[in-house]
Each structure stands twice: as structure tokens, then as C-alpha cells.
Amino acid sequence: MPEIDFALVEFNLTQIGIAFVLSLPIALNREYGARGAGLRTYPLVSIACCAFMLVAMDVYEGSDAEARVMYGVITGMGFIGGGAIIKEAGKAIGTANAAGIWLTGAIGISVAYSRYEVALVLSFIGFCIFQFGSYLKKHESD
């Protein structure tokens, strides 16, 4: 039976918890605005990306292998985000959700590498864009 490294469990739980918390401002904004993906999707993307990178950092040796995992994660986030975009009446809708999904994935990856300053900035700026960007956006009636 394999031994469990409880220090590593605590570290991973902390990292994934931080990724979860930093995705919440964006998730709550999208949830309460009833704009597609929300309280489940954004945190799941963030913690999954964080977890993929934590596993890669622990299992693979060398930055080349970690980079390949990161490329796969980034591509996967793009695929998920692409599913959020819908073409309707000649217009693409859901592009902000797609970008937000990608952003929360970047938060998760940043946290996995203990780059909390990057994750905090991404979380703050992402929230501000979603919260206040609609006031600056040109609307149909304009």
C-alpha cells in the first residue's frame, strides 16, 4: 500500500483552495448576472488547471514535460471556452464567457506555480472587467 505524504496533501489542498477562492469573484459576477457559465464552471476550471499542473510538477522531471502539460491545459481551456461561444443572428455571443474560462484557468496555473501575485492580479482585473466593462461597451441602441 502506498504511503501518503500528508505534507504534500496539505500543500495541494492549500493550492487548490487558493485557486478556488481566487476564481470566486469572477464566478459570482457571472452567476448573479445570469450570463452563461457561473458559480460551478469557473471554480471547476480553476481548480482543475491547478491540479493538472500540481500533478505535472510532482510527477514529471524537467520543465519541458511541465510545459507540455501546460500547453495541453491551455488548449483544453480553449476548447471548453469555444463551446461557450454561440453564433446567433450573425453575431457571436459568449465570447466574454470563453475569455473568462481561459482567465480562471490561468489563475489555477499561476497558483500551482505559487505565483500568487499573478493570480491575484488576474482575479482582480477579471472581476473588474466583468463588473464594470458593460458600462463601457457599445450597446445595440447606441
If you had to describe this structure to a student in words, what would you say it looks like?
With 142 residues, the chain is mainly alpha-helical. The protein has one domain. Helices cover 75% and strands 4% of the residues. The protein has helices at 6-32, 41-59, 63-84, 95-112, 116-136, and strands at residues 86-88, 91-93. The chain has a two-stranded antiparallel ribbon. Strand 1 and strand 2 (91-93) form a beta hairpin. Helix 1 packs parallel to helix 5 and helix 3 (63-84) runs antiparallel to helix 4. The longest helix has 27 residues, at 6-32. The radius of gyration is 17 Å and the shape is elongated. The model has no long low-confidence stretch (mean pLDDT 89).
The helix/strand class is: mainly alpha
Distance between the termini: 66 Å
Task: Give me the strand/helix succession.
Answer: HHHEEHH
Whole-number radius of gyration? 17 Å
Summarize, please:
The protein is mainly alpha-helical and 142 residues long. It contains five helices and two strands.
Please write out the topology.
Blueprint: H1 6-32, H2 41-59, H3 63-84, E1 86-88, E2 91-93, H4 95-112, H5 116-136
Antiparallel strand pairs: 1-2
Output the keywords.
mainly alpha; two-stranded antiparallel sheet; 142 residues
